[in-house]
């Protein structure tokens, strides 16, 4: 198999992996926000006087949820633009 075909295979698999990585991060964040919002509304309905304190804690956890998905996007961008696997393929092919 020639070098161009190997590079194309690595790039295509990397593109699929990046899509799965971003999609899984978005799905996990969406589920987390759904659970977080539901529990916040349950707690605020049960004890309305605690709603401001619960809201502050909800926003802190929401920020952490967003941070996790942004880390996934950063890793996906790294694999997209500075693919470390291409260097290994070129080195193995003797280029």
From TrEMBL:
The chain positions of domain V-ATPase proteolipid subunit C-like read 16-78
In its UniProt record, a GO molecular function of this protein is: lipid binding
Marked site positions, Reversibly protonated during proton transport = 66
| Name by which UniProt lists this protein | ATP synthase subunit c
Q: Where is the protein localized?
A: Cell inner membrane; Cell membrane
Sum up the protein's function in the record's words: Key component of the F(0) channel; it plays a direct role in translocation across the membrane. A homomeric c-ring of between 10-14 subunits forms the central stalk rotor element with the F(1) delta and epsilon subunits. F(1)F(0) ATP synthase produces ATP from ADP in the presence of a proton or sodium gradient. F-type ATPases consist of two structural domains, F(1) containing the extramembraneous catalytic core and F(0) containing the membrane proton channel, linked together by a central stalk and a peripheral stalk. During catalysis, ATP synthesis in the catalytic domain of F(1) is coupled via a rotary mechanism of the central stalk subunits to proton translocation.
Q: Which regions span the lipid bilayer?
A: 12-37, 58-81
Q: What is its main location?
A: membrane
Q: Its topology with respect to the membrane?
A: Multi-pass membrane protein
Tell me the keywords, alphabetical order: ATP synthesis, Cell inner membrane, Cell membrane, CF(0), Hydrogen ion transport, Ion transport, Lipid-binding, Membrane, Transmembrane, Transmembrane helix, Transport
Q: Which family does it belong to?
A: Belongs to the ATPase C chain family.
- What InterPro entries does the record point to? ATP_synth_csu_bac/chlpt, ATP_synth_F0_csu, ATP_synth_F0_csu_DDCD_BS, ATP_synth_F0_csu_sf, ATPase_proteolipid_c-like_dom, F/V-ATP_Csub_sf
- State whether it acts alone or in a complex, and with which partners, per the record: F-type ATPases have 2 components, F(1) - the catalytic core - and F(0) - the membrane proton channel. F(1) has five subunits: alpha(3), beta(3), gamma(1), delta(1), epsilon(1). F(0) has three main subunits: a(1), b(2) and c(10-14). The alpha and beta chains form an alternating ring which encloses part of the gamma chain. F(1) is attached to F(0) by a central stalk formed by the gamma and epsilon chains, while a peripheral stalk is formed by the delta and b chains.
Q: Which GO terms describe its cellular component?
A: plasma membrane; proton-transporting ATP synthase complex; proton-transporting two-sector ATPase complex, proton-transporting domain
């Amino acid at each position: 198999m020639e070098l161009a075909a190997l590079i194309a295979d690595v790039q295509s698999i990397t593109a699929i992996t990046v899509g799965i990585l971003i999609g899984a991060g978005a799905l996990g964040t969406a589920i987390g926000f759904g659970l977080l919002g539901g529990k916040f509304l349950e707690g605020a309905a049960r004890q309305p006087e605690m709603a401001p304190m619960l809201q502050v804690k909800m926003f802190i956890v929401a920020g952490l949820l967003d941070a996790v998905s942004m880390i996934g996007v950063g890793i996906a961008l790294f694999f997209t633009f500075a693919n470390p696997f291409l260097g290994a393929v070129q080195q193995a092919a003797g280029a």
